[in-house]
Design goal:
Elements (H helix, E strand, L loop, with lengths): L1 E3 L2 H13 L4 E6 L5 H13 L2 E6 L19 H10 L4 E3 L3 H4 L18 H4 L3 H15 L4 E5 L3 H13 L5 E5 L19 H6 L1 H15 L5 H14 L4 E9 L13 E9 L2 E8 L2
Helix pairs in contact: 6-7, 9-10
Length: about 280
């Protein structure tokens, strides 16, 4: 496994592999790797000849009151995990290599970024689209792998790739969960025992939404009310949203029609968690 810090070096490595006929898969991460990240690397290995993972905590996607400074940084452990599953290249740039002192160019996010996370975290998707485009340019892979847990993020990246005619395929991989149903997240480590227990209400609410649809309920208001009741009974400390939306546009629905997805963002103590489930 090659650990590379220079953008020029990683570009040269990937370009060399491509010119030799190899398909390169890219897994962008912010580190603090868990089994969900590793599953992306494993999927990339199945669909690629060479797998490159990036580790970079991107400052431009954090708001002024968010957790950039305390976001977990576990590089040594991350590298051990990546090596154990056969990752070929790990790109670990520093901030100055990604954002020069006079950096002033950013990517305007697509329309699908406007609601939900885009409303609650102003500027977040501007930072996401900017760093993802920069990583695609520095690590010119043919395919990139993202987890479905960040459903809106994947939708934003897909739209950016299409709008800008970027020559890269986006593969979305299933959410990896703990045995009790909690979606794996680097932020789960912030939860104390009480918060960890109450966080299970997110997956319970999503399961309830799926069950209602399977039983023939298509009234979105009824499903959203049930999701909200489960979250409040836990209780979570606050709910940013618990909604049923169009799976492509992420616009609200009044009736469940395909494609539809249930999305949740809730807070437990100082930790904000998101989760989702495709309904149909």
């Amino acid at each position: 496994m090659r650990v590379v810090h220079s953008p020029h070096e990683v570009y040269a490595l990937v370009d060399f592999e491509r010119r030799n006929g190899n398909r390169v898969g890219l897994v962008p991460t912010m580190g603090a790797l868990h089994a969900g990240h590793i599953s992306l690397v494993q999927q990339a290995k199945l669909q690629s000849d060479i797998v490159a993972t990036t580790i970079f905590v991107n400052p431009t996607q954090f708001g002024p009151k968010e957790d950039f400074s305390k976001y977990p940084r576990t590089l040594e452990s991350d590298l051990e995990k990546l090596d154990s599953v056969g990752c070929d290249i790990v790109f670990v740039p520093n901030s100055e290599q990604v954002y020069a002192p006079e950096h002033s160019t950013y990517v305007e996010p697509p329309k699908v970024a406007n609601r939900w996370e885009g409303e609650i975290r102003p500027g977040h998707y501007r930072g996401v689209t900017t760093i993802v485009l920069k990583l695609f340019m520095m690590v010119p892979a043919q395919v990139a792998f993202f987890g479905r847990k960040d459903y809106q993020q994947v939708a934003v990246i897909r739209a950016m790739v299409e709008d800008l005619n970027l020559p890269i395929q986006i593969v979305t991989c299933d959410t990896i969960r703990e045995p009790d149903g909690l979606a794996m997240s680097s932020r789960n480590r912030y939860l104390n025992d009480s918060e960890r227990s109450r966080a299970l209400s997110l997956s319970r609410a999503l399961k309830a939404a799926n069950s209602m649809v399977e039983e023939g309920c298509h009234n979105v208001a009824d499903i959203e009310n049930e999701m909200t009741k489960i979250l409040l009974n836990a209780p979570v400390d606050s709910i940013d949203y618990a909604r049923i939306v169009d799976g492509d546009t992420l616009e609200p629905l009044s009736e469940v029609t395909s494609p539809a997805v249930a999305i949740i963002a809730a807070r437990l103590g100082t930790t904000r968690l998101i989760d989702n489930s495709i309904l149909c």
